[in-house]
Amino acid sequence: MAYSPQVPRWSPSRTSVEELHHLSDQNVEEHADDLEMQRMRSGNRSRWGKLALFPFSGSFSVYARPVVAEETNDTSIFEEEVVVVEGMPHEKYENLADGMGHQHGAFLTWQDLWVMASDGRGRQLTILGGISGYAQPGEVLAIMGPSGCGKSTLLDTLAGRLQSNARQKGNILVNGRKQTLSFGTSAYVTQDDTLMTTMTVREAVHYSAQLQLPNTMTVAQKKERAEMTIREMGLRDAADTRIGGWVSKGISGGQKRRVSICMEILTRPKLLFLDEPTSGLNSAASYHVMSRIASLAQREGITVLTAIHQPSSEVFDLFHSLCLLSSGNTVYFGPANMTNEEIEDDHGDYEEGKTTASAAKATEILVKSYSSSTTCKEATQRIAFINEKGSGELIKRRSQASF
Ligand SMILES: Nc1ncnc2c1ncn2[C@@H]1O[C@H](COP(=O)(O)OP(=O)(O)OP(=O)(O)O)[C@@H](O)[C@H]1O
């Protein structure tokens, strides 16, 4: 009989919220992940209760929309139009019950969006085939689908970074308007971490803060912003560790991703685009990265759009909305917490598509059944609602935004 040694095994157990209440400050740092996980779980459950009212689930407080100062043609000044809903106890705001209040956010909509590119041999490829959707402040929209379905292209198009050989058609509106967002109002985190390997986390973030933040901020304020962002991304313990690279080992892959995100959120963007933020990470590190982003989005009212591959169920639970693409078409756009049964009810022909048709035919069936589904109608209504409210007769008050 083969000898099998009795190896003692340790398996992680989640700390209860009650236990966490009794931890000292130092220990809280160690258990930050547990706390974060539980807070997100319990917090999201109730938040998702509201989402059941989708698409008009508006129990929000304040909504301020960023606009480029069109009248002055001064795109360097980032201004906010502050719109307020009833009962907001803040003297800065006026009352307005518009049903879509949000904290200083950017509502992004895209309608009938097409992207075509030449394949280098004179032929035109359709990469996105007339898709529509929206993203809202404080929420994380996940863009999912098989490799090559157009996730990065959608992110690039929405972020205004489409390659020069590609053309786009359709409407992309921020708060109901076509506009160019000024520097610092949107941020894009690419798949690759391009970090200085010899710097420590703190040096890299501080350096980036000095370069990116406006001159209206003092050096001390910039340092404070950098420190705050390091804490927000859970990097305090690694702050004085070298980033490292192939030659010298430094921080972990997940920490590197968080440093990259840290650098992009220093300016407190209204819109955050993330291309595969968890690629190459294990499920725990992926959860750590995404939970930080989700709580930041919620707390700061940031509109987050992320392309993501095969998230774990814990990570998936952090998403508010899901945009599922196949061959450049939408096969689902709606709440991420919709159950499988509901989706299958909505997509009546799904089973038929799965069992009897080829992949292309199955996609066609899914696209058709999505476009005739109630979820699609609700999304279309929501887009119209956002655009109308965003550009309509709202009470406006302009104020210089503080970085
Ligand atoms: N500028 C371009 N010119 C030509 N073809 C392009 C261009 N951009 C994207 N494509 C093609 O469009 C399709 C979608 O690409 P995209 O990178 O958006 O997919 P993806 O879903 O993000 O894939 P992955 O998950 O593998 O990153 C691919 O077939 C790609 O080759």
Automatic annotation (TrEMBL):
Keywords: ATP-binding, Nucleotide-binding, Transport. Transmembrane segments: none annotated. SMART domains: AAA. One of its GO terms (molecular function) is ATP binding. Pfam families: ABC_tran. Residues 108-352 form the ABC transporter domain. InterPro entries: AAA+_ATPase, ABC_transporter-like_ATP-bd, ABC_transporter-like_CS, P-loop_NTPase, Plant_ABCG. Belongs to the ABC transporter superfamily. ABCG family. Eye pigment precursor importer (TC 3.A.1.204) subfamily. This is ABC transporter domain-containing protein.
